[in-house]
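Protein modeling request. Please complete all fields; requests missing the sequence field cannot be processed.
Requester role: graduate student
Desired output: 3D structure, token encoding
Chains: 1
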Amino acid sequence: MHDDVLAFCGPLRVRCAVLVHGTPCLGFALEEPVHVNIWKTRLDELGLEVGPWLRDLKRAVLEGVPGSTLIRALRSSGGRPTPIMLPLGALRRVVQTGPGQRFAYIVDVQNSEENTARIQRLAFGADILFIECPFLELDAAHAAQRNHLTAFQAGLLVRRARVGRLVPCHISPRSSDRAEALCDEAEQAFHGWGT
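Delivered output (195 residues):
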């Protein structure tokens, strides 16, 4: 493991942080260097079908292979797709690239300065952070005893990490009948309402 990088899965990078929950546990971030979308309307204009070949096209774009590289595509032909070889350069007009997306996942952590710093470093600027919200703030003493965050603490942490979107998860069975209240409390802290 180099720095906080756990693994590479093709172009995707998996990072982790060692966190504390009474025992060590891991938080994860999944990052893509570039996000590749395919324009369906442009495929239609070229008479090309959608299909598994688009995975190869995306991979070629991500790897930066030369425009002369041939890609096996599928052409629409009388209702039946026909394989055709086309240069990557000719297919670039169906591809749109943009900044890569970043997702983070944090569960089973106690509320501590050490965890907060590690989570913020791992998830800073992520598009989405899935984070535990097992207890309401009124159950903060119980949450601390169980080495968990409250929904309010989770929302504050996500806001400080400048994450785009909070997704509450890992709700305690003890609080399952208050899931909506947990989500509301996390959102209030995340958006800074009443803080």
